[in-house]
Design brief:
Elements lengths: L1 E12 L2 E13 L4 E5 L6 H8 L7 E6 L2 E2 L5 H11 E5 L10 H10 L5 H14 L15 H13 L5 E5 L7 H16 L3 E6 L2 H4 L4 E6 L2 E4 L9 H12 L1
This protein binds adenosine-5'-triphosphate and magnesium ion.
Adenosine-5'-triphosphate (ATP) binds next to strand 1, strand 2 and helix 1.
């Protein structure tokens, strides 16, 4: 579903380039639920922007659904993004003057779906996320957890191949966090491919697979091939004591 090969992302900052991603090779299979954990500044959002086709890598290849998208023009990327990716952000990013159902239906306007169909699909999805009784509420009239569930419904409206969530519980209290994570669990059981980005280990533990990002490099948690063996530790200890 997602395959990256040695992705590097450099930002040119007043002549002094910053290497935010330093060779990311990642494979996410269809139906997988993966969490990427890392501290602030480690490159999580940079990676999410590339996986979500919001940005392009400086080097390396990115295959989404089998297609190399690392060299597409911004217009082509926008099309792929609309079709293949559903986004969930920390700050929900709902339009404040639109009701819940209008927010969820919005992405379908761009693909020319007639209004009755749009609203019917949005209503079904809002019901699916437990908000069938809040269709006509504005975002400001909903709790944070409810707003995030509206945002998840909106992310699903075009039936994307991958759901990408960047700190989806970052603004939520403990109860709302559990609600959103339970919803993620259900979507995973239904076969959705989910990549969740977080700095919170507890949140990451809910995913099926955990990856760590630090200073632009990614490692698989529990990948024994990367953990030094006992004999390597012993050798290192010996060589440092002589
Ligand atoms: N547009 C940019 N121009 C220059 N440098 C950038 C830009 N965006 C990010 N960076 C740098 O790249 C590195 C990774 O940033 P990124 O936003 O991906 O981190 P993050 O893991 O998402 O952090 P946080 O948890 O705080 O959101 C940081 O050192 C940051 O300063
Ligand atoms: Mg970030």
């Amino acid at each position: 579903m997602i395959r990256t090969e040695h992705i590097i992302k450099r930002y040119a900052l007043s002549g002094q380039p910053v290497e935010a991603l330093r060779g990311i090779s990642l494979h996410i299979r269809p139906g997988e639920y993966a969490a990427i954990v890392g501290p602030s500044g480690s490159g999580k959002s940079t990676l999410m922007n590339i996986l979500g086709c919001l940005d392009r890598p400086s080097e390396g290849a990115y295959y989404l659904h089998g297609r190399d998208v690392s060299t597409l023009t911004p217009e082509e990327l926008a099309q792929v993004r609309g079709r293949e990716i559903g986004f969930v952000f920390q700050g929900y990013q709902l339009l404040p003057r639109l009701t819940a159902i209008e927010n969820v239906a919005l992405p379908l306007i761009l693909c020319g779906v007639p209004v009755q169909q749009r609203l019917a699909r949005a209503e079904a999805l809002l019901t699916r996320v437990g908000l069938g009784h809040r269709l006509r509420h504005l975002p400001g009239q909903l709790s944070g957890g409810q707003q995030q569930r509206v945002a998840i419904a909106r992310a699903l409206i075009r039936n994307p191949a991958v759901l990408l969530a960047d700190e989806p519980t970052g603004n939520l209290d403990a109860i709302a966090t559990q609600e959103v994570l339970s919803l993620m669990d259900e979507l995973h059981r239904e076969g959705r491919t989910i990549v969740l980005i977080t700095h919170d280990d507890m949140v990451a533990q809910r995913a099926q697979r955990q990856l760590c990002i630090a200073a632009g490099r990614l490692t698989e948690v529990g990948d024994v091939s990367r953990v030094p063996s006992d004999s390597a530790w012993a050798e290192a200890a010996l060589s440092s004591s002589f």
